[in-house]
Design brief:
2 helices, 5 strands, alpha+beta, five-stranded antiparallel beta sheet, 116 residues
Length: 116
């Protein structure tokens, strides 16, 4: 069992927006390692998830859609399998624009713009 970490960074999001995005990822990744801030004065939120590739793919929950109060920039970073799984879940739940990706030796970073 080789667990890796997936890091999610949300910019321009309210606390409710951050929770909506995290809820969409929970079926595939479980609960984040720490609670999200509830302070709406914060505009950048981070969530970290443990990801075990041995768990196999988990399809996005049927009808799982999120509601956002405004556009949110999401950066997902981690192992390529985890990033691909997160990207699939987010693009099924939200209207998303691909903002690009960067691949390293063992990690990948992908940025999406989620729209209400």
């Amino acid at each position: 069992m080789s667990a890796t970490e997936l890091t999610l960074t949300l910019s321009g999001a309210t606390a409710a927006d951050a929770r909506a995005v995290v809820r969409v990822l929970e079926p595939a990744f479980g609960q984040p390692k720490e609670e999200l801030p509830a302070d709406d004065a914060v505009t950048v939120h981070t969530a970290r998830f443990a990801h075990d590739p041995a768990d196999g793919p988990t399809p996005p929950a049927a009808g799982a859609t999120g509601h956002l109060s405004g556009a949110v920039t999401v950066t997902v970073q981690g192992a390529p399998e985890a990033v691909a799984r997160a990207r699939e879940s987010l693009t099924h739940a939200f209207t998303a624009q691909d903002q690009g990706s960067v691949s390293g030796d063992q990690e990948q970073e992908w940025q999406l713009l989620l729209e209400p």
